[in-house]
Amino acid sequence: MVQRFAVVSAAVLCVLASPLAAQDAPATENGRYTMTQTPNGFMRLDTRTGAVSLCTLDKGVAQCRSTPDERAALEAEIARLAKENTELKGKSAGIASSKPSELPSDHEVDRAIGFMEKFMRRMMRVMREENG
Questions:
Q1: How far apart (Å, rounded) are the C-alpha atoms in residues 55 and 57?
Q2: Would you report the helix, strand and coil content of the chain in percent, each value rounded to 5?
Q3: Which domain covers residue 42, as residue numbers?
Q4: What is the pLDDT of residues 2-43, one digit of tens each?
Q5: Helix, strand, or coil (residue 37)
Q6: What single-letter DSSP state applies at residue 45?
Q7: Phi and psi at residue 60, to the nearest 5°
Q8: At 105, phi and psi to the nearest 5?
Q9: Is residue 9 in some structural domain?
Q10: What's the Cα-to-Cα distance from 68 to each of 33, 54, 65, 105, 117, rounded to whole Å?
Q11: Total domain count, the chain
């Protein structure tokens, strides 16, 4: 009987002591939210998700509204740019791997040089005729 009383008493003390111990712990140690005072109320940060809410007191009742999440917008833009970058790399790899244009043959080079020589000779003749 005394043993049973001791066990029950120990169990009751453990159950009663746990909420008291939790109250003594700092608010930020195991808490999910951190609060920061602002001129119009306070800012609440969810330490697990990173979500931020702006809370105001209206007639003694706290009303919290989520703030626009710039982080989510930035992550979405980063994901979009990463996808676009991957697509462009794929396209440029396709262009780079295509067969480069072949060099002109000796016959085509000789023909082009022949046109240039003919043009230069005519230009020189025109210049001599105007000066002379």
A1: 7
A2: 60, 20, 25
A3: 2-72
A4: 344 333 343 334 444 444 444 444 444 468 889 888 888 888
A5: strand
A6: E
A7: 80, 0
A8: -75, 165
A9: yes
A10: 18, 10, 10, 65, 71
A11: 1
